[in-house]
Amino acid sequence: MNAPTHPFASDLTLPLTEIDVADPKRFELDCWQPLFSRLRKESPVHYQTVGDLGPFWSISRFDDIVEIEKNAEVFSSEPSIAIIDPLPELDIKNFIAMDEPSHSLQRKAFQPVVAPKNLTEFESLIRSRTRAALESLPENTPFNWVELVSRNLTTQMLATLFDFPWEERQKLSMWSDAAVSDERITGKADLTLEERQLMAVDIFESFSKLWQERLDDGVESFDLIRLMQKDPNTKDLINDPVMFIGNLLLLIVGGNDTTRNSMTGGVIFFNENPSELEKVRNDTSLIPSMVSEVIRFQTPLPHMRRTVTRDFEFKGHRMKEGDKVVLWYCSANRDDDVIKNPDSFVIDRESPRNHASFGFGIHRCMGNRLAEMQLRVLWEECLDLFESIEVQAEPTRLSNNFVRGYSELEVVVKRN
Amino acid sequence: MPRIIFVQADGSQSEVEVSRGHQSVMEFALESGIGGIDADCGGSAVCGTCHCFVNDPHMFGAIEPNEEAMLGLRPDRENNSRLSCQLSLSDVSADTTITLPEFQM
Questions:
Q1: What is the domain extent for residue B56?
Q2: Residue A1 within any structural domain of the chain
Q3: Chain centroid to CA A83
């Protein structure tokens, strides 16, 4: 008997119309690639009616995603950039889920803090904190890389960006986790709606306090709160709690989950591809290119969603006003029409920056250079400090179609 | 043939003679080894990382809405900002200067 090896073995045989493309389990088991490979070939603009989140369109080819993201007028980011709609009971708004002109007005207020010019001021601080975290790791003893490195470092970074009270910084990653743990995208009831509502109140209270303390205190700082207070487009944002909490959460999730999971992904990819690690060890000038490849291969956010604003024909398919269109970045990053040998992790590939992980167009990831810098510094320090980072067991992956990530990766490190 | 003088943010300059071809200024700069351009998306005007400042804006075609949208997000946008992937090399009819920004994002 040829028994299926996992619940998605039938992805290659079932009619596509019977498959729920967004099933979060597929990401937990890390077996999403065959289905998307099939979609790219057989049905690159695919309409699904089955599943709890349907109906929606799935776009799986790189160039189609670029084309849709270019057309923000037809493909709106409102009311949500995730496959699920916001709950009326938890109505928070942020600029990534807004169209023009409001989107750009708010985004511009935050953009300067992550501009590379500012980042150089952060770099030595990030490096010393990264170094300290790595030096404190137990040697020759298994530990969870996700907790002690990835989560720890990204939480520190967030606290730095917000100038958040250092001893309370764990709250930031707790909020970030809660924000993406809606059971409609995880398939699991992690948190009740009431718990998530209480969290929103907690965020509002914590940040309102910081806001009041910093208002007109005359301190010259480029933390995100003072930047909001300085910019005419965001200086009164606190009076609009729905928007205030939403934008804070956007910055928290954007600066946390994504980089955290790429920090873990890199360790896994190097364990699976030791010769690639040797390349970087022999030539550390390859680190920036390696960082881009890690971000491509991880694709920390597997999808973004748009909503059709008027009846529109796309590649011969008639999309109707109100249709959901899901852009599968994870699939675009494995599209061999654009990326050569896409299923291989190759740290010195040609045009490593040409990947889909940051999205395209006006909603393209704002913190991309910050993320790249954090990962570059992490690997520069890791290579300097460790002879090896050995994965001990299969990672525990998240059941989530919006965040492709890990809760546990057991490793053993050996110092140089 | 006319030349493009590329000026980096630190003031250093490179002069490159324009060769024939239906390339963009972005592609030409990368092939000529000019730094300061990332061109993440490879020329689709959807990433904004080939931003530059042109001395002779009238020399090139008008700014299309997509390019305008991406330029609009740049914190260092100026009146003569362009995405170099949207500038056609064949429009370079005389010596001209293109300045690169301090950073791409």
A1: 3-99
A2: no
A3: 14
Test B46 with A104 for CB contact under 8 angstroms.
Answer: no
Among A75, A107, A354, A357, most B C-beta atoms within 10 A, so best to mutate, is A354
Q: Please tell me which residue of chain B has the smallest CA distance to A371.
A: B105
Domain that holds residue A371: 9-415
| Residue B104 domain-assigned (yes or no) | no
Which tokens is B99 given?
Answer: 């300045």
Does position A302 have pLDDT exceeding 60, yes or no?
Answer: yes
**Structural domain contains residue B105:** no
Residue B61 lies in a domain: yes
Residues A26, A328: contact at Cβ < 8 Å?
no
The answer to whether A351 faces chain B, any CB pair under 8 Å, is yes
Rounded to the nearest angstrom, the minimum Cα separation between A229 and chain B is: 17
Contact B105 A107 (CB under 8 A): no
The ipTM is 0.93
| Residue owning tokens 């700014």 | B63
On whether residue A4 sits in a domain, the answer given is no
User: What is the per-residue DSSP string for A375-403?
Assistant: HHHHHHHHHHHEEEEEE-SPPEEP--SS-
> Cβ of A281 under 8 Å from any chain B Cβ?
no
Q: How many domains does chain A have?
A: 1
Q: What is the CATH number of the domain that holds B29?
A: 3.10.20.30
Asked if the structure places residue B42 within a domain, the reply is yes
The H-or-E segment that residue A324 falls in is: strand A324-328
Neighboring chain B residues of A107 at a CB cutoff of 8 Å = 73
Q: Is the Cβ of A51 closer than 8 Å to some Cβ of chain B? A: no
Predicted structure pTM score: 0.94
Distance of alpha carbon A178 from alpha carbon A248, whole angstroms: 13
Flag if B75 and A66 touch (Cβ within 8 Å).
Answer: no
Provide the number of structural domains found in chain B.
Answer: 1
Alpha-carbon torsion (A326, A331, A333, A337), positive or negative: negative
Query: Residue A280 maps to which CATH number?
Result: 1.10.630.10
* Chain B CB within 8 Å of residue A361 CB: yes
What's the pLDDT score for residue A1? 47
**A253-299: per-residue pLDDT in tens?**
887 889 999 999 999 999 999 999 999 999 999 999 999 999 999 99
Q: Mind listing the pLDDT tens digit for each residue in A204-226?
A: 999 999 999 999 888 887 788 88
| Chain A residues within 8 A of B75 when measuring between CB atoms | 108, 111-112, 115
